[in-house]
Amino acid sequence: MNQFVIEDLIVGSAARKLVDSVNLSVEEGEIIAITGKSGSGKTLTFMGATGLLTSKELTVTGKIKWNSEYYTPSEMNTFLGKEISYVMQNPMTAFNPVITIGSHCRETLMEHLKVSKKEADKIVIDWFYKLNLNDTKRVYKSYCYELSGGMLQRVMLALAMAVGSKMIIADEPTTALDTITQKKILSEFIRINKEYGVTIIFISHDFGIISQIANHIAVISDGKLIEYGSTEKILTAPEKELTIKMLKELCV
Ligand SMILES: Nc1ncnc2c1ncn2[C@@H]1O[C@H](COP(=O)(O)OP(=O)(O)OP(=O)(O)O)[C@@H](O)[C@H]1O
C-alpha cells in the first residue's frame, strides 16, 4: 500500500522553482533512498512535503496523501514528531544544550503521548536499550554535547520509535559520522525497518550507502525527480545521464 504520496509538489522562491512538480509514492514498510547532487532539492522536497518549511521567501504547493487521506503540505506538520519523524544530519541541532537528553525525551513523550513522567521515562529507557544505547543512565543524564554523533543518532531513532513513528525521514543521517559508526547506524535503520515495519526515506548523495539500504531509489536533479526505480534497476540499468555519472563516480 502507498503510505505517503507526494503529488505535484512545488517549492518556489521569487526567482525560481527549487522543487519543480515532484510526484513520488512511498510504499508502507519500504526503504526508499533519495539521491542527487548537493543543492538539487532533496531536503527542500521533504521539508516542503512535511510542512517544515517556514521561510516566508518560499511558497509550497501540492497535495500530500498520508495513509489514504489528502493534506496540504503545511497540514502534514501535525504528524511530525508523532507518526512521522524527521532525523537531521547534525543531531546536535535537534537538542537543546541546556537540558539533559533524558529531560528532552521525557518532555517530548509527555507532550506527544500525553503520558506521565514515570511512563515517559519507562518508554524512553526501553527504546534506548532496543537501540543499543547500553549505558542508559549516563545517556539519560548527559547533555547533547557530551555524547558522540553516533550516540545522538541512536537517541534520535529511539525517540522516533518511542513516539510511535510509522515513517522516518532521515536526511543525510550518517554524513557526519566516521565509516565504522556509519555502518553501525545504517544497520540500525535496516533493523528498525525489518523488525518494526517502519517506512524509511533515506536522503543521501552517497550512492555507496544507499545501494546497501534501499529497496527503491529516486534521483533528483535541479528540483525535478528525474529517475525512479528498484535499487537493482537503478544500479544495473540506469537511464539518465546524471544517474550513470553518479554511479561511475562511485566505481572510480
Ligand atoms: N530557505 C531557503 N530559501 C531559499 N533557497 C533555499 C532555501 N533552502 C535551500 N535553498 C536552495 O534550494 C536549493 C536546494 O536545496 P536543498 O537543501 O534542498 O538541496 P539538497 O539536495 O538537499 O542539498 P545537500 O545534499 O547539499 O543537502 C539550493 O539551491 C539551496 O541553495
Walkthrough of the structure:
With 252 residues, the protein is an alpha/beta fold. The chain has one domain (2-96, 160-251): P-loop containing nucleotide triphosphate hydrolases (Rossmann fold, 3-Layer(aba) Sandwich). It is 38% helix and 26% strand. It contains nine helices and ten strands. The protein has helices at residues 42-49, 101-113, 117-130, 136-141, 149-162, 179-196, 207-213, 231-236, 241-251; strands spanning 2-12, 17-27, 31-35, 59-66, 69-71, 84-87, 167-171, 199-203, 216-221, 224-230. The strands form two sheets. Strands 6-7-8-3-9-10 form a six-stranded mixed sheet, with helices on both faces. A four-stranded antiparallel sheet has the order 2-1-4-5. Helix 2 (101-113) packs across helix 3 (117-130), helix 3 (117-130) crosses helix 5 (149-162) and helix 5 packs parallel to helix 6 (179-196). The protein is globular. Bound molecules: adenosine-5'-triphosphate.
Helicity range: 25-40%
Mass-distribution shape = globular
**Number of domains as seen in the coordinates:** 1
Q: Strand portion, in percent?
A: 25-35%
Query: What oligomeric arrangement do these chains adopt?
Result: single chain
- End-to-end gap: 38 Å
Q: The CATH topology, please?
A: Rossmann fold
**Overall pLDDT:** 92
- Low-pLDDT segments, ≥5 res: none
Radius of gyration: 18 Å
SSE string: EEEHEEEHHHHEHEHEEHH
Q: Give the strand order, joined by hyphens, for the main sheet.
A: 6-7-8-3-9-10
CATH class: Alpha Beta
Bound molecules: adenosine-5'-triphosphate
CATH architecture annotation: 3-Layer(aba) Sandwich
Main location: membrane
Pfam family, one: ABC_tran
GO molecular function, one term: ATP hydrolysis activity
Domain ABC transporter: 4-247
